[in-house]
Amino acid sequence: MIIKYSVVVSPSLKANQRQVTTTMPESTKMKKPDVKIVILGDMNVGKTSLLHRYTERKFKDTISTVGGAFFLKQWGPYNISIWDTAGREQFHGLGSMYCRGAAAVILTYDVTNWQSLAELEDRFLSLTDTASTDCIFAIVGNKADLTDPHAQAATSGGGQADAELGGVQTQPLPACPTPPASPLLNKQVSKEDAMALYGRVLRYKGLEEKTSPPAEKMCFETSAKTGYNVDMLFETLFDMVLPSILKKRREGENSTVDLEESRGSKRTKAGCCA
Ligand SMILES: Nc1nc2c(ncn2[C@@H]2O[C@H](COP(=O)(O)OP(=O)(O)O)[C@@H](O)[C@H]2O)c(=O)[nH]1
Ligand SMILES: [Mg+2]
């Protein structure tokens, strides 16, 4: 089950004064996320579209970025929150709060735009300093449908037919359409470039390559447009953050206050336990 929470960003305020209000349906107010995943990357790489594809099984050519959202995904018995930037990346308005405590970060670039990969290192990586110490990183090259014929056929997350027909299921798309649905663009970022960035991310975080998930597993090429690799991306991460949830729960249990014990203890005048 997926619950969408809308985040309202007031455009009349300056970037550093923006107030973010989270509204949630009354019936879901009790659902507390067990873990947080954030999606980061330059404007227009397709972050909102990836989330929309996964949660709504659809693709829209124009999608409102300002006033984004976070989603709550039930994964087994756990609630996973997935945070979108609400368009604040374009104003350099993503503070340290955005990644605070994140168990996984999705660093997203556009495969047709070299600069979008460079920006991940230059602008976005430092924002992850506040993420959990055992945070998992995925590097995601989106818009693969523009460069790779095999990404033009939907493999997961609904298909292009879904997008055009408002979610109505039609005949499955052929595995490899010929000729390609649209002329291919020059691929500016190869998977090897992304894997090299993954190595640098690990070094930046002071993580050992040997003990971290391998680059081949953590670098994805996706298409929010066709759904290519989208389910694979999110569900791989959901499985990988489960140990983090269990650890958090164990820590929570260990730090639980014994109410009976504290009731029994005497209080001093200053209100402290004696
Ligand atoms: N061809 C193609 N276009 C995409 C894809 N994902 C997003 N777009 C388009 O790229 C633009 C920016 O997408 P958006 O999700 O708003 O990017 P964001 O700023 O990173 O959230 C929109 O016009 C989308 O329709 C994709 O996988 N393939
Ligand atoms: Mg967006």
Task: Describe this entry's structure for a reader.
This protein is of the alpha/beta class and 274 residues long. It has one domain (2-166, 182-255): 3-Layer(aba) Sandwich (Rossmann fold), CATH 3.40.50.300. It is 27% helix and 18% strand. It has seven helices and eight strands, in the order E-E-E-H-E-E-E-H-E-H-H-H-E-H-H. It has helices at residues 47-56, 114-124, 160-164, 191-204, 215-218, 230-254, 259-264, and strands at residues 2-9, 20-23, 35-41, 69-75, 78-83, 104-110, 136-142, 219-221. Strands 2-1-4-5-3-6-7-8 form an eight-stranded mixed β-sheet, sandwiched between helices. Helix 2 links the parallel strand 6 (104-110) and strand 7 (136-142). It is globular. Mean pLDDT is 79; it is low at 7-28, 159-172 and 261-274. Magnesium ion binds next to helix 1. Magnesium ion binds at residues 47-48, 65, 68, 84, 87. One of its GO terms (biological process) is protein transport. Residues 250-274 are annotated as: Disordered.
A few lines on this structure:
With 274 residues, this protein is an alpha/beta fold. The protein is built from 7 helices and 8 strands; from the N terminus they run βββαβββαβαααβαα.
Task: Give the helix/strand layout.
Blueprint: E1 2-9, E2 20-23, E3 35-41, H1 47-56, E4 69-75, E5 78-83, E6 104-110, H2 114-124, E7 136-142, H3 160-164, H4 191-204, H5 215-218, E8 219-221, H6 230-254, H7 259-264
Parallel strand pairs: 3-5, 3-6, 6-7, 7-8
Antiparallel strand pairs: 1-2, 1-4, 4-5
The structure holds guanosine-5'-diphosphate and magnesium ion (MG).
